[in-house]
Amino acid sequence: MKLITRFEAAQRSTPELHRLLRETFNALVQSDPDTAQRRNALASIETIQAELASRDP
Question: What's the pTM?
Answer without folding.
Answer: 0.93
